[in-house]
Each structure stands twice: as structure tokens, then as C-alpha cells.
Amino acid sequence: MTVPEHHTRIxxxxxxxxxxxxxxxxxxxxxxxxxxxxTDDDEHDPEGSTIAFERAQVSALLADARRELxxxxxxxxxxxxxxxxLCTRCGxxxxxxxxxxxxxAQTCIDCAG
Length: 113
Ligand SMILES: [Zn+2]
Prior knowledge:
- A zinc finger (dksA C4-type) spans 87-111.
- Keywords: Coiled coil, Metal-binding, Zinc, Zinc-finger.
- InterPro entries: Znf_DskA_TraR.
- This is Zinc finger DksA/TraR C4-type domain-containing protein.
- One of its GO terms (molecular function) is zinc ion binding.
- The protein has helices at 3-36, 46-81, 96-101, 109-112.
- It is mostly helical.
- The chain has one domain.
- Helix 1 (3-36) packs antiparallel against helix 2 (46-81).
- The longest helix has 36 residues, at 46-81.
- The protein is elongated, with a radius of gyration of 19 Å.
- The site of zinc ion has 8 residues, from helix 4.
């Protein structure tokens, strides 16, 4: 893939990730607001612990998505710097098939393993 193609691909991934963050944020808000109408007694109320579990799950997904967004921003920076596609650990080129699957990959398969 050429640099402009990588740019397009990463921009698309970023847009996807941003949409995911927006929808997860909406879900998180809905869970928090919904839980206001139930009891505060999480420990003894089975529904309360389900809400706590859901909230923890959504917040973990949100953390993942935010990390992904940071990785994609870093990948865009490397594209601009001309170091994109080079392993940040050993400096060798990262295989195209790996970049294709993981456009924000910073290390080659050997260093990642
Ligand atoms: Zn490497």
C-alpha cells in the first residue's frame, strides 16, 4: 500500500473508532441514568449488580476504544514522519499483511510475539 492509501485506511479506522466511542458513551450514560431509578443497594439487589457489571463492561470497551484511537493517531504521526510501517523496536519493515490487519501496529510480528 502507498502512503496515501495508508492515510485513507487509518482515517477510516479513526472514524469507526470515534463512532464506537460515541455509541459506548451513550450506552454508558444510559446505564448510569437508568440505574438512578433503581436501588442504590448494589450488594443486595440482583439488578443492581447486573447494572454494575454492565457499567464495568462498557467502561472497559471504552478504554479499549480510546487506546485504539491513540494508536491510530500515533500511526498517522508516523506516516507524516515517514517512519510508518517500520517496527519501532527493531526498525525492520512490518509485513504488509500485518499492517493490513492492524493498521496501527507499531512492531513487526517478531517483536510483537
Ligand atoms: Zn521488530
